[in-house]
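Priority: medium. Attachment 1 of 2:
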């Protein structure tokens, strides 16, 4: 399912420096022989120019961690899709739980960001996921369906061009991972929701994120509706990230 082959995306979050990025990217690029999955890294905006030049001509695509829901104008501090396009950005994460939690992004804002990215030819990686309290209250499916429904409602038939990332909030940065079976069951719910919205739901890659690492990647990626991963901490260590790319290339 999803685009042909798995898609593995590193989300560096607010980490990096010119020197650290140069060494991490070169270590990743030097280890990519034998990697056949799709791969991308999402960097902080100030480093997109640096990464664009280091990644030119490579098999590692460039992504951003957020986009503005607006086209241009008086939005201090925001970065537009057209600006990202200037740096050959192919993917943009939208609606990461850290944006929803710390920056008050609503389902509607996230849907508008996805729409703006699609219009600019950038693939939005739309994040959904329940909190621990929501999981304990048995609301996991309802929460992720509500989050995805907003994006479907705003984007209509273009929905087949997005990537979805299921990231249970309680699994992010905690070392706790949902079991592969639980991940699969949520992914199957999301797949069914996409199938009801588009005849091309099979094109949508549904990634898992939340404490994915070199040790657990293969068992998660073996699930039929897990089309790849969105990786935080483990994407900052070249050997770990490379071993996950290889697990996705089997
Ligand atoms: P960790 O892999 O560090 O848990 O982060 C997951 C995530 O939020 C990726 O977007």
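Attachment 2 of 2:
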């Amino acid at each position: 399912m999803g685009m042909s082959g798995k898609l593995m995306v590193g989300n560096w979050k607010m980490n990096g420096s010119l020197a650290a990025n140069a060494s991490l990217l070169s270590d990743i690029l030097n280890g990519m022989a034998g990697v056949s999955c799709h791969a991308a890294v999402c960097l902080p905006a100030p480093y997109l120019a640096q990464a664009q030049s280091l990644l030119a001509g490579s098999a590692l695509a460039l992504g951003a961690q957020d986009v503005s829901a607006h086209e241009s104008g008086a939005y201090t501090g925001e970065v537009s899709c057209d600006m990202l396009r200037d740096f050959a950005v192919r993917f943009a994460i939208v609606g990461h739980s850290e944006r929803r939690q710390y920056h008050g992004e609503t389902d509607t804002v996230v849907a508008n960001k996805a729409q703006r990215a699609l219009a600019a030819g950038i693939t939005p990686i739309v994040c959904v996921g329940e909190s621990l309290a929501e999981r304990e209250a048995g609301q996991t499916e309802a929460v992720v369906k509500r989050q995805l429904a907003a994006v479907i409602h705003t984007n209509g038939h273009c929905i087949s061009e997005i990537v979805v990332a299921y990231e249970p909030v309680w699994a992010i940065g905690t070392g706790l991972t949902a079991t592969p079976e639980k991940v699969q069951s949520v992914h199957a719910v999301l797949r069914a929701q996409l199938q009801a919205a588009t005849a091309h739901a099979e094109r949508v890659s549904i990634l898992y994120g939340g404490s994915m690492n070199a040790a657990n990647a293969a068992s998660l990626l073996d699930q039929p509706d897990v089309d790849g991963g969105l990786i935080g901490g483990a994407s900052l260590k070249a050997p770990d990230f490379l071993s996950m790319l290889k697990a996705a290339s089997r």
